[in-house]
Automatic annotation (TrEMBL):
It comes from Sediminicola luteus. The chain crosses the membrane at residues 12-33, 45-66, 86-109, 121-141. It comes from the Bacteria. This is 50S ribosomal protein L27. Keywords: Membrane, Transmembrane, Transmembrane helix.
Length: 145
């Protein structure tokens, strides 16, 4: 079961990162190009990215508790913070990625209250962009690629 969840979490991460990148790029292009904010493209890109990001979070939470690494908390206790790999998997990756999802969710919520297209694009570019940078900063690249 662990392997299935790990693979699902890894493969969905590619999709989420690609969608997040496309949504941020689309928002920047819409802002710079002074384009109208459309429901068929811009709204749906933001919403689909939000939904898949939250699905990834839920899968990640399940993975966190079924992972063999979770047992390191019991074995190492507070010494987890002294081991850089254990700290990355048990503390930094989950915390920063949850924080990234908070920024993405705030960006989604803020954009719904705005009426002007430029402000909607700017909100997506800032909040989804911060989420993207945070996610990229805490991916365990050595294990993932």
């Amino acid at each position: 079961m662990y392997e299935v969840i790990l693979n699902l979490h890894s493969y969905l991460a590619y999709i989420v990162l690609a969608l997040l990148f496309l949504t941020v790029a689309n928002a920047i292009l819409g802002l710079v190009g002074n384009k109208p904010f459309t429901l068929t493209k811009d709204f749906r890109m933001g919403l689909f990215t939000l939904i898949l990001s939250h699905m990834q979070l839920l899968i990640g939470i399940v993975l966190y508790f079924v992972s063999p690494r979770f047992q390191l908390w019991g074995e190492m206790g507070g010494k987890v913070m002294g081991d850089s790999m254990a700290r990355l998997y048990l503390v930094e990756h989950p915390f920063i990625n949850i924080l990234a999802l908070v920024f993405i969710t705030i960006g989604w919520s803020k954009h719904k209250k705005l009426m002007e297209a430029n402000r909607k694009f700017k909100t997506f570019a800032i909040f989804y962009g911060i989420g993207l940078v945070l996610l990229l900063s805490r991916i365990p690249w050595s294990q993932w690629l």
